[in-house]
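hiii so um. not sure if this is the right channel but i have a protein structure encoded as tokens and i wanna go backwards to a sequence. like what aa goes where. can anyone help
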């Protein structure tokens, strides 16, 4: 039985594609390993969104090639966004790779491995409830991808070039997949998409996401539903009213990207800083205690000290629970490519570091609202290197990107409580993380 090592790079949406490939390969009789040196086949699912992501992909391909030079029989398959975007240059650069596959044909991974020809799609592959899937996330939760592609035209973003226009999965397919996952022990589902709040608009649905949420709320055994990646101008009253339901995590990830009106206009984004602050105020009024996350870009062409100061002031005023800061990456084919990349990399890094320092202070203060509260915590497993400490998350913490909850194990728990939700009293805060004690 051939052993496969699959390396998944990039976002949660990429991870779902990787899990579908693993499901297909598992059904085809392949085994899996985490060690490249023990594998017969290495699959690398790449991200090609920005320069640093491509550098990470190149590094992993080089590692695989080094292994193959010692074991020529090893097969290497490279898939994903980077391949979709720069296939020809990658083929020239790495002749040792046996097969290349973009984002349109993940379901033909076994054909690619065996050198069998297959019909190619003209748009990005989007799995459904019938697709086999091998989860790689900790017990108790899973991502569900509800759409593929994007129909926005943000000036800095290459996703529409790579994935094509937005197309939604049917509600029935998402519900059926959720039912299966819940039957397998999943308690939290995290809805992911390039723009989750756009869901259904491509097929003429009004309030598509609220309709989907209402269907998911009715599923017995499903405890938490989390919405990731919502565009500011698509956060509607209907959505916020639906989010008042107990099962939906009081959490939103809204990428505002910047606050200066001129920069926002150049980015082809929707809301100015003042408009964004009004939206945040409205969200918090309708959903008191909600945890908000955003992402912003520093060093966009035209961003000087004045524009950057407005961004700092915006973050200071908005008081996000969590914040991701990206340095501008000039991408060929995007709307702002011709604007060049005038802001020095050292300036970008300095601006990023200053924002992250500010956010660390804000996040620490925000975490004070959880002290002495009794919160439900989804246990994900034991802390690496310390089996007496458990790692979990509250409904206010998204997986992989936000802080965690650390708590000591308790005799009342079974040996491995991973995937279970327990009541925990939050006793301390430590940076972005919370510390708590199990309530027996």
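sure thing!! here u go:
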């Amino acid at each position: 039985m051939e052993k496969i090592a699959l390396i998944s790079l990039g976002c949660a949406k990429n991870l779902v594609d990787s899990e579908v490939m693993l499901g297909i390969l598992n059904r085809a009789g392949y085994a899996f390993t985490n060690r490249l040196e023990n594998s017969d086949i290495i699959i690398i699912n790449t991200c090609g969104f920005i320069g640093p992501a491509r550098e990470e992909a190149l590094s992993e391909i080089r590692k695989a090639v080094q292994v193959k030079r010692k074991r020529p029989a090893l097969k290497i398959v490279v898939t994903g966004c980077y391949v979709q975007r720069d296939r020809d240059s990658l083929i020239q650069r790495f002749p040792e790779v046996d097969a290349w596959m973009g984002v349109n044909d993940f379901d033909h991974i076994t054909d690619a491995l065996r050198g069998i020809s297959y019909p190619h799609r003209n748009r990005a592959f989007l799995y459904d409830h019938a697709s086999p899937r091998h989860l790689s996330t900790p017990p108790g939760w899973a991502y569900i991808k509800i759409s593929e592609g994007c129909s926005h035209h943000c000036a800095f973003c290459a996703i529409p070039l790579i994935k094509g226009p937005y197309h939604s999965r049917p509600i029935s397919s998402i519900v059926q997949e959720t039912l299966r996952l819940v039957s397998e022990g999943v308690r939290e589902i995290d809805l992911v998409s390039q723009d989750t709040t756009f869901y259904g608009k491509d097929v003429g649905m009004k309030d598509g996401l609220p309709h989907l949420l209402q269907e998911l709320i009715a599923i017995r055994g499903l405890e938490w539903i989390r919405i990731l990646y919502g565009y500011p101008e698509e956060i509607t009253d209907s959505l916020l009213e639906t989010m008042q339901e107990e099962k939906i995590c009081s959490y939103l990830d809204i990428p505002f990207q910047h606050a200066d009106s001129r920069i926002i206009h150049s980015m082809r984004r929707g809301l100015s800083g003042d408009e964004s602050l009004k939206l945040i105020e409205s969200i918090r009024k309708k959903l008191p205690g909600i945890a908000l996350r955003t992402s912003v870009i520093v060093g966009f062409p035209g961003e000087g000290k004045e524009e950057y100061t407005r961004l700092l002031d915006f973050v200071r005023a908005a008081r996000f629970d969590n914040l991701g800061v990206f340095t501008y990456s000039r991408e060929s084919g995007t709307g702002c490519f011709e604007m060049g990349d005038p802001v020095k990399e050292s300036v970008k890094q300095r601006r990023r570091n200053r924002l992250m320092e500010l956010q660390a202070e804000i996040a620490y203060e925000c975490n004070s609202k959880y002290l002495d509260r009794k919160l439900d915590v989804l246990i994900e497993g034991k802390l690496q290197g310390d089996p007496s400490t458990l790692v979990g998350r509250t409904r206010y913490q998204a997986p992989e990107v936000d802080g965690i909850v650390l708590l000591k194990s308790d005799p009342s728990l079974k040996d491995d409580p991973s995937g279970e939700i327990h009541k925990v009293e939050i006793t301390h805060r430590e940076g972005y993380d919370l510390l708590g004690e199990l309530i027996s």
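oh and Residues 371-438 form a domain with the OB fold (Dihydrolipoamide Acetyltransferase, E2P) fold (CATH 2.40.50.140).
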